[in-house]
Design brief:
single chain, alpha/beta, Aspartate Aminotransferase, domain 1, Aspartate Aminotransferase, domain 2, 7-stranded mixed beta sheet, 4-stranded mixed beta sheet, globular
Length: 428
Amino acid sequence: MSIEDADWPALDRRHVWHPYSAIDSPLPTYPVVSAQGVRLRLADGRELIDGMSSWWCAIHGYNHPEMNRALKEQIDTLAHVMFGGLTHEPAVALATRLVELTPDSLETVFFADSGSVAVEVALKMAIQYWQAKGQPGKQRFVTVRNGYHGDTFGAMSVCDPVNGMHASFSGALVQQYFAETPSCSFGAPCNAKEMNSLRTLLVEHHSHIAALILEPVVQGAGGMRFYSADYVKKARELCDEYGVLLILDEIATGFGRTGRLFACEHAGIAPDILCLGKALTGGYLSLAATLSSANIAHTIGQGKPGLFMHGPTFMANPMACTAGLTSLRLLLESPWQERVTDIAQRLESGLAPCRAYDHVADVRVLGAIGVVELNRPVDMITVQPRFVDAGVWIRPFGKLVYLMPPFIINERDLETLTSAVIDVVSEM
C-alpha cells in the first residue's frame, strides 16, 4: 500500500506514538505537508506561523536555500560512515569551528545524536575523569531545582525530581543532590545568602560529587525561568573551591537565543564541559556535541580503561555535520544580534497586555524568548486548536504559553504571534 493512497493522518493516530502523549490521546495532531520560511503548511491548506522554531532549533526557518544546497552536495559525496576508526572533513571542520566559537578552555568535541545523549556523555566524562584522577567515589551530581536536561536515564536523574516530568521513574533513577532554585533575577546580582543552598551541598558532599550541571541563565523545559548570570559566575567559583567540575547545558540557549552566542557569556565564565544541540544544525538534522577541556580529555585517556566509554552508531554523521557548518555560517554572517534584540523588544511590547489579566502570574522576556506564565495549567485540548484557528503554531506546556520564534521572523508575523497569545490567554 502506498501512503499516498491511504488516509495517512488516520494511520498516524493508529500507529504513531508522539512525544509526551498517549497513543489514544484526544489532543489533535496536525498533518504538515511542507514548510517555508516561518510557515508550516497543513494538509488541509491552512498555513501556520511557527512560534516554536520546531522546539527551538529552526533558527533560520524552513527550506533555506543555502542549507538545502549544502546537504544536496554532501549526500552525493558521503551520506554516512561509521566514526570508529574513520573520520571525515565535515566532522573535523565542525569540531574546529565549535572550538573556535566556545570559551578558550574547551578544546575537544564529542559528537552525539541528541541533546539528552550529549548530557549523558557529559555525565560519563565527569565520572571517568575522577576515576582517572584516583577518586572513584565522585559519582554523583549536583544541580538546581526546576532544571531540565533530557529524557534518558542519566539526564532524568538531574532533572527536577518534584516539579519535573519524570516522577514515574523516581525509584529507578540515581539519587542526585538538588540545590534550591536560583532566586536572583536575570540582570541582578546574587548575594552570598542566595548561594547558601548550593554551597552547603558542596561543603557536605563534594567528596561524592563529580560535577555541577546547570542550564546557564535560562531554565528551559523545567519552567522557562530566567535567573542571574551572577549565580552562574559564583557557581563556577564554588566548583573551583570544592574540586567539582562544571557542566553547562546550553542545548536550548546556545547559538544566540539569549542575545549572546552562548549563555555562559552573560556570566563571563567557561565550563569544564559544555553540551550543545537543538539549533546546532538549524533544525535540519539531529546532532549534538559535548565539548570538554583538554585536561579532561587527556586525563580520561590516561586512566583505566584508557579511553572514553561511549560511541553512538550515527556519531558525527556527515550530513548532520554539514548542516551544522552551514547553519553556523548563516548565523554568524547574519545580523543575528540585532535580530534577537529586535525580537526581544517586540515580544516585550507585544506580550505586555497579558500582565493585566488576573490569571496571569508573570510575563517575561529574554532575548528571543517570550513567556506568559499562568496561575493554572493550560487545557491543551481546548487551547491548542484555538492557536491553530488563529493561524499560529504555539505549543504551551504546564502553566506556560511561550514563544521562541525563528530569528528570521519579520515584524508582521511576530505581531500575529503575540496577538494570538493575547487573544487566547484572555479567553482562558
